[in-house]
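Incident log, structure service

09:12 report received: a user says their structure output differs between two submissions of the same chain.
09:20 pulled the input from the user's history:
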Amino acid sequence: MIQVQFSNVKNWRAFLSFLERFLNLPRVKSAIGGSQVELRMEIHGTIMLRIGQAVGVGDYEAWKIVCDGKPIGEVSAYYLDNHFFTISDGSKILSAEEKKILALFGEYWATPVSPVSLRLSAKDEETMQHILEALKSFYADTYPNAIAERYAPLAEMISTERL
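09:34 re-ran on a clean worker, output below:
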């Protein structure tokens, strides 16, 4: 089992989409030993986060990595999303302008608050390890919005017990 941590993921949804496309590249599928790779959500839970004096909900997700109908791994993340500011007391740390932005452009977003974890079994584990290490070194994305960019680096997990 190969294990890799990605510390440069800022947009969880974009990363999941990218990862599924990446795992379906011919060279990657050859190392895995299959013809079709997909991600399927397995677990979604709520955690507790603190940003300054605000305490509120964050989330945990684990997605199965499935190849030709069989589970071969998992990708997971703890993350901050807009719910911290809308259903918790997180809104008290937002400026008036940020509250307007959140209300007007309330599109869902999620930003990891710790490294994203990926575990994967492959037919050719040595090649797959090299592929994933290369991915880890070149993958970069951007924060989904200014609120995520400002507050996600400040978020502390105070409970990872999934509620």
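09:41 both user submissions now match this output. Likely a transient worker issue. Closing.
09:42 reviewer note: The longest helix spans residues 125-138. The mean pLDDT is 92.
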